[in-house]
Amino acid sequence: MRVHICAVGRLRGGPESDLISDYVKRFDRTGRALGLGPLSVVEVEDRKGGGMDAEGELLRRAIPKGALICCLDERGKVDSSPAFARRLAGWRDAGRGDLALVIGGADGISATLRSEADHALSFGAMVWPHMLVRVMLSEQLYRAASILAGSPYHRA
């Protein structure tokens, strides 16, 4: 199952970018034998300032056709890392070819795109900057692959 992080905004070089690159490489290396990956990060930017609806349309175009859509949203389901790993494995085992993990901009994800999502995932009740969510999500994807591979990375 190919995994795509579809996010609003451009991440320039720096520590967040370095962390994401590292976790993407780790996920790809670990996930390959598990039928997970590759992991790609697709960035969209609303240069015309159309707000959430315009961002939602750009995100929709970035999502591969037929992909399972999982929105990162504060109202979503909070999973433990092992539960998230099981969820990924379930989607993979159900034959899903693509998973799009969608991260909105500063105002979140448009209601229309949220309503089209197959799942909503939350990192808790707090709102996180979308750039940090990318880092946390890429780490959790690597952690999930490590859990599924039986690696000692996750020490729960």
* Main sheet: strands, sense, barrel: 5 strands, parallel
- The succession of helices and strands, N to C, reads EHEHEHEHEH
Residue-averaged pLDDT: 95
Alpha-beta content class: alpha/beta
Terminal Cα separation, in Å?
A: 26 Å
Radius of gyration: 15 Å
Strand order of the largest sheet: 2-1-4-3-5
In percent terms, what proportion of residues is strand?
A: 15-25%
Number of helices: 5
- Are there runs of 5+ residues with pLDDT below 50, and where? none
Outline: globular
Assembly state of the chains shown: single chain
- Could you estimate the helical fraction of the residues in percent? 40-55%
Extended strand count: 5
Features:
single chain, alpha/beta, 22% strand
Could you explain how this protein is built, in words?
- The radius of gyration is 15 Å and the shape is globular.
- α1 links the parallel β1 and β2.
- With 156 residues, the protein is an alpha/beta fold.
- It contains five helices and five strands.
- 44% of the residues lie in helices and 22% in strands.
- A five-stranded parallel sheet has the order 2-1-4-3-5.
